[in-house]
Amino acid sequence: MIDYSLEHTTSDILTSQAEKAEAADRPAPESLQALRRDGIFALRTPREHGGTWADVESMARRFTELGRACPSMAWIAGTCVTAKDMAARSFPAAAAREAIFADPDALFCGSGVPGGPGRRVSEGVRVSGRWPNVSGCEDAAWASLALTVEGTPVFAVIPVSELTVERTWRMAGMRATGSHSLIAEDVLVPTAFVTPAPAFTVADVLLYAVTALGAVVGAAKGALDATGAMFASDRKPFMTAYSRMGESSGARQWLAEATHLVNRAERTMLAVARAADTADLSPAEKPRLQMDLADAGHDCRAAVERMLDVHGASGFNMSNVLQRHWRDLSVASRHPHLNPYLAVESFGATLVERL
């Protein structure tokens, strides 16, 4: 049994808890504690409130390492960054800011899709609505939620304790994210905690996409770790005369191709992250960068398919970590931020407009 003390790395703890968290359909308490202690939940807390407000490239690297151990926990870290970024940008100088960021290491969750209407009252806005797929909602302190008030898009930050969680997340992968539904039933949100929805920049959108892609690239690297361990073992290709996997030129080629694809996806992600850190990023560059993001996700999926080919049916054994990384990656890489056909559609439209 692992002693969850400081000498164990965050990755060690996430790896040891991944199977338990998946079975529970929510993050393991030990994993959340490790992320909090490692400062992960403060990555997008404003510096004046005790956070680091890290640059996008640094966060992409952190999410990748987390995803290598447990893709679901990397996803939780990424959605916390997104929710905090939306809150910070929506309330740049509001009285609510002190309360929202009182604990710089608090876990945030949220949804940018309007989930219901609000009606104005003298004390603020009364909210009723439903927001599905809110990652980490059972363990978060605050929820950053989009809604409409009198037909106008607004943004509210609400304590999760005032909302109800309905356990609706039943997926083949990313199960440990606990991306259940949040429900508000006539919840009073004080005026200071409601604001018109801000216009998000291209850099904002890229940040939110990179938080998703970091978990995907991490999952692919974790799959590579499992594949490398298999090559280092005494495992051999079944029904062959080889004594080890590495003796097969075909297996070596599949390993090389998978590694190349994962490395290319990581380079692409980091290039997009550096672009998101650029102050003068223009809207015209968005379609090209979204294509890059979608390509990186596709590279990761293709890489893991090669790894599964090398493993054979044993790669799908529930005791094999490879199958969990495959399932997590397959679900996460299909997030709207990484949607390949919409990226192609947008990029194609941009190219035609330039003719």
From TrEMBL:
<dbReference type="InterPro" id="IPR013107">
    <property type="entry name" value="Acyl-CoA_DH_C"/>
</dbReference>
<protein>
    <submittedName>
        <fullName>Acyl-CoA dehydrogenase</fullName>
    </submittedName>
</protein>
<feature type="domain" description="Acyl-CoA dehydrogenase C-terminal">
    <location>
        <begin position="215"/>
        <end position="339"/>
    </location>
</feature>
<dbReference type="InterPro" id="IPR046373">
    <property type="entry name" value="Acyl-CoA_Oxase/DH_mid-dom_sf"/>
</dbReference>
<feature type="domain" description="Acyl-CoA dehydrogenase/oxidase N-terminal">
    <location>
        <begin position="15"/>
        <end position="78"/>
    </location>
</feature>
<dbReference type="Pfam" id="PF02771">
    <property type="entry name" value="Acyl-CoA_dh_N"/>
</dbReference>
<dbReference type="InterPro" id="IPR009100">
    <property type="entry name" value="AcylCoA_DH/oxidase_NM_dom_sf"/>
</dbReference>
<dbReference type="InterPro" id="IPR037069">
    <property type="entry name" value="AcylCoA_DH/ox_N_sf"/>
</dbReference>
<dbReference type="InterPro" id="IPR013786">
    <property type="entry name" value="AcylCoA_DH/ox_N"/>
</dbReference>
<dbReference type="InterPro" id="IPR036250">
    <property type="entry name" value="AcylCo_DH-like_C"/>
</dbReference>
<keyword id="KW-0560">Oxidoreductase</keyword>
<dbReference type="Pfam" id="PF08028">
    <property type="entry name" value="Acyl-CoA_dh_2"/>
</dbReference>
